[in-house]
Write a structure and sequence with these properties.
The protein is an alpha+beta fold. Helices cover 31% and strands 23% of the residues. The chain starts with 7 loop residues before the first helix and ends with a strand.
Length: 131
């Protein structure tokens, strides 16, 4: 299948639709959580069958979808940053030591959704900052 997206969740949906699959794809697990207008989708590709189906390496993929991100109130922005921080902490806790340093930065176009929240995370000792 030729995908025109790099997002695991979109590839999963397209693959299921194209192959008339109503259950989960072998080697792919998906979990969704919705809070207000924020949807967090976690896709786990756990074996070669899932990797082949979605044409993405074995691993964990997180998508945070925010409706109407260009017109949000400051309180809503705080909630979005909180959700992103929670997901990043979950990933960091699995892969980085407690005293290790890490920085996560969104680069690029201010008007591109992934970059519009300008999130930065410094020092693994829970000293997280959002800009």
């Amino acid at each position: 299948m030729d995908f025109r997206t790099d997002m695991a969740v979109e590839r999963r949906d397209l693959y299921r639709k194209a192959n008339n699959i109503e259950t989960e794809i072998d080697g792919v697990e998906c979990e969704e959580e919705e809070q207000e207008d924020i949807r967090v989708t976690r896709v786990k590709i756990s074996n070669e069958k899932g990797q082949e189906a979605l044409q993405k390496p074995i691993g964990n993929y997180i998508t945070i979808d925010v409706k109407r991100i260009n017109n949000i109130e400051p309180e809503k922005e705080d909630k979005i940053v909180e959700v992103i921080a929670k997901e990043l902490i979950s990933v960091v806790d699995k892969h980085i030591g407690k005293q290790d340093e890490i920085m996560i930065v969104g680069l690029g176009n201010l008007y591109s959704t992934p970059d519009s929240l300008r999130f930065s995370c410094c020092q693994r000792s829970r000293n997280y900052k959002a800009y």
